[in-house]
Specification:
Residues 1-570 form the SecA family profile domain. This protein is α/β, with parallel strands linked by helices. 55% of the residues lie in helices and 12% in strands. The protein has a 7-stranded parallel sheet, with helices on both faces. Strands 14, 15, 16, 17, 18, 19 and 20 form a 7-stranded parallel sheet that branches.
Length: 788
């Protein structure tokens, strides 16, 4: 590990050395740029585009383009890029991640690389985590791009579909990660090429890259359609699992978030549902529902993982603390939560299209990112996305004091200490931002502060409408703000008058999170641009992290040693245990994401293959009638092989004649007259000979059908696309079932991913055969449709 660390550090040092040379060249052009008139400065964009077309690379244009963008920014926005921001811009252009502390101006940094890469004319996407930030960043930066002669667009959730295409045609488009992914999926479901909104995925800059590429990557993007009514099992199973006892009827592994029935639990299940055997098809279905329901009850908490609003269960994004509108947990978990909370159980929607963020963003030719917290996850960024992380120096020294954690035996003692700390800050006029891990805990802290008469504001998923305003005011004298993980990422907290003198903004963390990045994000709200500040985390043995990972013996031992439960426990060894627990959890989360990618990478090969074939058809690059003819001939062959299966096994005359009669009758149902006598005469020939004879019989009919349908090409194209989409929907359902089935592969010493790969390939071939059969029948049955 020491060697790897040294290699990574030397890589960043090499990059900084290289970037600093570029910065000096950019700085050397400053006076020259200042001397240019507005019109001359604007004209540089046209010059750069011409030079690019003439063969100069973007790398060769970088120094001049950055100098122009920097000068234009000062004239239009009143903001001039610092040297360290130029370094950040170079990192983005190189297709790496720039780790820059909060308040270092990442939004402005992105303009440098966005401007340079937009010169190619292929479009740049600036991706961020929510609609507010996408719209805000666009509105702030659009005047700069427009001054330089570039067009801009913005795509948010409420934008009209007819307006989207125009936004994507812009040189630089600001957009959220969810809209970007969903538009990609929707573009691969359209019935006309004119309905597509996106163009080629060339280059994107991902703001809050850790939130998008890591946190959001836990849940795939799914477009669902109307499905079946919810199964009756959800309510019945919910009532049943409430009777199950932990350790007796089921066991749970909190570290890996797994849950399973014991032998006693299986017996209880068989008696309750009157099952003779738990391993029957019905038994496996009930087992699936029970495990999902147990997971919903044991691991999913209201006001942490989801909220209930207006009779609906809404997901809370764990990375941001915001409600994820329009998203539902998959594979029945959302229905289990609806049963648990006693609200209406929604339909089990069918998946029409899905992709993970990992595989979506890998479709870009070049990807870059920026965040305040990426270094701790550098291995994952490198292994999954091929992205290096470069820590960019701060413009001014960081003055924030990060105090050692305070540890208490109980949650009550911890919260009492937090309240005392806040009281002290309020008396001195020091603003406080209190970070909590859930809505429930933010409301608990709020109630404790109210008891002491401390005025404060609360920011969580129930109260996120005024997020930016709340966060912007968090640095004013004496203001106390409680926030969940969202903590207003992307919005600067500026210190009010007299706040520097009392120590700047104080951050109080009410517990350590499962991930060090989230702790660092919270800390990063304080100490921007050389401002003073401080951070302090309060922990207790009732916190989830310590409750799950700290050995029970430690807490028992401390109970014997600690005479006053309200006093702080000073033990550096225990604090190191917490840090190692976080690293262990981060590794566990990484393993889960890697496992997701292993499965979706298999799906992705199939997805891209299907989308490629679909787009060739949509773009008119495949002759519809030739495709239908090939499919019809293949369908006849498939039907021949399936109906003559018995003959191929036994090889006797009787089975041949019986098969021939069945085959001819089936062909008649499709309007094809095949001579039974002619077919019978071929008895004893090889299957290939019979195949060729059938093709000769069918071919003239297909030519006639093609001639009859020559005016209906567009209608047939749409029908084929609809058939492909239906087959893909059925295939996705099959893949979900395969994934559920292979979970038990390890019991028979098999590798679940290998099993999934084999079974999914079989399913894909079956889907391909189904599409061929559908297209074949489409042509063969077309005359009946005309007569009707």
């Amino acid at each position: 590990m020491g060697i790897l660390k040294a290699l990574k550090e030397s890589e960043t040092k090499r990059f900084l050395k290289y970037a600093e040379k570029k910065v000096k060249k950019i700085e050397n052009l400053s006076e020259q740029m200042k001397s240019l008139s507005d019109e001359t400065l604007k004209s540089k964009t046209v010059e750069f585009k011409e030079r690019f077309k003439s063969g100069e690379s973007l790398d060769e244009l970088l120094v001049e383009a950055f100098a122009v963008c920097r000068e234009a920014s000062e004239r239009v926005l009143g903001m001039r890029h610092y040297p360290v921001q130029l370094i950040g811009g170079i990192a983005l252009h190189e297709g790496t991640i720039a780790e820059m502390r909060t308040g270092e101006g990442k939004t402005l940094v992105a303009t440098l690389s966005a401007y340079l890469n937009a010169l190619s004319g292929e479009g740049v996407h600036v991706v961020t985590v929510n609609d507010y930030l996408a719209q805000r960043d666009h509105d702030i930066m659009a005047p700069l791009y427009q001054f330089l002669g570039l067009t801009t667009g913005v795509v948010t959730g409420d934008i009209d579909p007819s307006y989207r295409k125009e936004q994507y045609q812009a040189d630089i488009t600001y957009i959220t990660n969810t809209e970007l992914g969903f538009d990609f999926l929707r573009d691969n479901m359209v019935m006309s090429k004119d309905e597509r909104v996106q163009r080629k995925l060339t280059y994107c800059i991902v703001d809050e890259v850790d939130s998008v590429l890591l946190d959001d990557a836990r849940t795939p993007l799914i477009i669902s359609g109307g499905g079946e009514e919810p199964t009756h099992y959800y309510k019945v199973v919910d009532m049943f699992v409430r009777t199950l006892k932990k350790d007796k009827d089921f066991k749970k592994d909190e570290e890996h978030k797994q849950i399973w029935l014991t032998d006693e639990g299986i017996d209880k299940t068989e008696r309750f549902f009157r099952l003779k055997n738990f391993t029957t098809e019905e038994g496996m279905s009930i087992r699936f529902h029970i495990e999902k329901a147990l997971y919903a009850h044991q691991y999913m908490e209201i006001d942490r993982d989801y909220i209930v609003r207006n009779g609906e269960v809404l997901i809370i994004d764990q990375g941001t603390g915001r409600v994820s509108d329009g998203r539902r947990f998959s594979n029945g978990l959302h229905q289990c939560l609806e049963a648990k909370e006693g609200v209406k159980i929604q339909k089990e929607n069918k998946t029409l299209a899905t992709i993970t963020y990992q595989n979506f963003f890998l479709l870009y030719e070049k990807i870059a990112g920026m965040t305040g917290t990426a270094k701790t996850e550098e291995v994952e960024f490198r292994e999954i996305y091929g992205l290096s992380v470069h820590v960019i120096p701060t413009n001014k020294p960081v003055l924030r004091q990060d105090l050692d954690d305070k540890l208490y035996l109980t949650a009550t003692a911890k919260y009492n200490a937090i309240v005392e700390d806040v009281l002290d800050c309020v008396k001195r006029g020091q603003p406080v931002l209190i970070g909590t891990s859930s809505i429930e805990k933010s409301e608990l802290v709020s109630s404790l502060l109210l008891e002491k008469g401390i005025t404060h504001v609360v920011l969580n998923a129930k109260n996120h409408a005024k997020e930016a305003d709340i966060v912007q005011n968090a640095g004013q004298r004496g203001v106390v703000t409680i926030a969940t993980n969202m903590a207003g990422r992307g919005t600067d907290i500026k210190l009010g008058e007299g706040v520097r003198e009392v120590g700047g903004l104080k951050i109080i963390g009410t517990e350590r999170h499962e991930n060090r990045r989230i702790d660092n994000q919270l800390r990063g709200r304080s100490g921007r641009q050389g401002d003073p500040g401080m951070s302090q985390f309060y922990l207790s043995f009732d916190d989830d992290l310590l409750r799950i990972f700290a050995p029970p013996a430690i807490k028992q031992r401390l109970k014997q040693l600690v005479t006053d439960e309200d006093s702080e426990i000073e033990n550096k060894f225990l604090l190191k245990t917490i840090q190692s627990s976080q690293k262990k959890l981060e590794g566990s989360h990484y393993d889960m994401r890697k496992e997701t990618i292993k499965y979706d990478s298999i799906n992705n090969q199939q997805r891209l293959k299907l989308y490629e074939e679909r787009n060739l058809l949509l773009d008119g690059k495949v002759d519809v009638f030739d495709a239908l003819e090939r499919a019809a001939l293949e369908f006849v062959k498939q039907t021949f092989h399936s109906t003559f299966e018995d003959w191929k096994i036994h090889g006797d005359d009787e089975s041949y004649f019986r098969s021939a009669k069945t085959f001819v009758e089936m062909m008649v149902s499709f309007g094809l007259v095949i001579s039974l006598d002619g077919l019978n005469e071929l008895e004893g020939q090889k299957p290939k000979t019979i195949e060729n004879w059938l093709a000769e019989q069918v071919y003239p009919v297909l030519l006639e059908r093609k001639s009859q349908l020559k005016e209906q090409e567009d209608m047939l194209r749409i029908q084929i696309l609809q058939g492909i989409d239906q087959a893909w929907t059925d295939h996705l359902e099959a893949l979900n079932q395969i994934k559920e089935d292979v979970r038990f592969a390890s019991y028979k010493q098999a590798n679940p991913v290998q099993e999934y790969n084999q079974e999914s390939l079989i399913a894909f071939n079956q889907m391909s055969d189904a599409i061929t059969a559908y297209m074949g029948r489409l042509l063969l049955q077309s005359n009946y449709q005309d007569e009707a």
